[in-house]
Amino acid sequence: MRGLCAIRSPTFAPLPRGSFFSPSRNQIAFTRKFFNCRAKFAESGVEGSFSLKVIPSNLLAAEREEAKAVLILFLKKHGLGHAVAARTINKSDSFIDHLVSRLHSVHKSRYLVGRELTTLEIRDALIPCLETLREEYGNLLVDVVESFPNPPIKEQAVAPIVPPSVVPAPDSPLASNKKLKAISRVSEIDPDGKLQPKILYLQELGMDLDQIKGIVRRFPSFAYYNLDGKIKPVVEFLLDLGVQKSQIPTILNKRPQLCGISLHGNIIPTMTFLENLGVDKTQWAKVIYRFPALLTYSRQKMKASVDFLYDLGLSPESVGKVLTRWPNITSYNVEDKLQPTADYFHSLGVNVSVLILRAPQTFGLSIEANLKPVTEFFLERGYSREEVGTMVSRYGALYTFSLTNNLIPKWEFFLTLDYSKSELVKFPQYFGYSLEERIKPRYAVMEQCGVTLLLNQLLSLSGPNFDKALKAKMKKLLPSKHQNS
Q1: Contact by Cβ (8 Å): 350, 398
Q2: pLDDT of residue 166 exceeding 80
Q3: SS3 365
Q4: What is the CA angle 28-92-53, rounded to 5?
Q5: How far apart are CA 403 and CA 401, in angstroms?
Q6: pLDDT given at position 10
Q7: Measured between alpha carbons, how far is 454 from 172 in angstroms, rounded to an integer?
Q8: What percent of the chain has pLDDT over 90?
């Protein structure tokens, strides 16, 4: 039953060999309604079905996960609770196959040339089809998903979808009531006056009740996770990787969803996938602590980020270094975020592949709120765009600094120094040193000695080497007779 939106004639689930089947009017009508979603994509020009045999099995698995993610978000958007939506997904294998086949039909030409779909393309292909089915089936959409390809019974309305007009807002009384129930569960006391074993376990890890309630307030499902089946196995796995016990509360606070994912079915295979892409397996503890959400993303989403890095010209080894140092890059959409940022730096003459390897965090900044204001700051002070490009090429972290708290105060102090503005082009790392603890004290010592060092020497040399540089400079200024004596 794959690809109903893309085929020309009705198809029904196979029956046992030797049986006789004549489709009922309800089944024919049901199938015809699925064809209606095909009209949403008439402009694609794709006709006929597309064989799944040409798609690698690992890609199919990744696309199934993407389709599940789209479907569960769609169901939740239209009123289903997380638990109900999750149960529906578990009963929707045939429907998920249908959605994946829909992708292959709509984007047949992409696969024929070996181009895989991005997360955005998958979402854009499936949401209109789901919207069409919701409009036609309304409260029976859950039955459509679970009973696919068999037509649902009209009188039945299990787990109804709430119409968009009455979907509770996140801050509505209904939504707040769900959160309050989940939060109250955290404080439940047993007949012996003790908290739940799950809460006691989390407290042993260093979390207090307020922290746990904060997690549940943001992610209510965490209150219903089983200790032995979900939370404990994940925590012990992280500890075995080398994550410090003191870091567990931070990881759970950042990504409580991690405990809701299958350890052997998802987390470990995802780690293997990333190791094959170059992530340093000896650095997993640091990677997960920095960005635990990495292990909750689909492989398709992560591969899109990796392909972007390869397109920039990075080697496999360099890609692995970027993913290890800044795994957050996988959270950004290529078309909406990463590519526009690369284009912006290209416009300044920056070698983007070098920049993203040296300072990948720069690609998480907003072009309008962070990059452009910093560029304008230097342009307004007489630097050319080429000089700004040179500065960021030499010191990629330059754009990560606050204008108010860093760049402006250090610039104003720089104006009082006996250096030309070109020194900052040569050594933009100046902005990375502490003004009070490094720049001012070092400059004061140099002034007392009556000599001048290059800005690079003034700040980058270690204490002993700084002293040696000062003495060498002072010795050169002494008269030759004093040198002899």
Answers
A1: no
A2: no
A3: coil
A4: 80
A5: 6
A6: 35
A7: 62
A8: 55
Residue type, 349: G
d(CA 126, CA 68): 11
Cα–Cα dist 129/390, whole Å? 49
Contacting residues for 70 by C-beta, under 8 A, at least 6 apart: 99, 122, 123, 126, 127, 130
**Could you give the C-alpha distances from 326 to 268, 290, 319, 357, 369, in angstroms and in order?**
20, 8, 10, 10, 21
Neighbouring CB atoms inside 10 A of 448's CB total 9
For residue 42, give the nearest of 137, 115, 132 by alpha carbon. 132
pLDDT at 398: 95
Tell me the mean pLDDT in the region 213-233.
93
- How many Å apart are CA 311 and CA 335, to the nearest integer? 13
| Residue that the structure tokens 């969803």 belong to | 257
**pLDDT surpasses 60 at 49:** no
Between 57-77 and 93-106, two packed helices, what is the crossing angle to 10 degrees? 110
Residue 85 binned pLDDT confidence (cut-offs 50, 70, 90): confident
Question: 130-135 contacts: CB < 8 A, separation 24 or more?
Answer: 130/37, 130/70, 130/71, 130/74, 132/36, 132/37, 132/40, 133/33, 133/34, 133/37, 134/78, 134/161
Compute how many other C-beta atoms are within 10 angstroms of the C-beta atom of residue 471.
Answer: 12
Q: 129 near 5, Cβ under 8 Å?
A: yes
At residue 2, the pLDDT reads: 37
Tell me the H-state helices in 295-366. 299-311, 316-325, 339-347, 352-358
Asked if residue 391 lies in contact with residue 424, where contact means CB atoms within 8 angstroms, the answer is yes
Question: Residue 112's pLDDT is what?
Answer: 55
Q: 């309008």: which residue's tokens?
A: 368
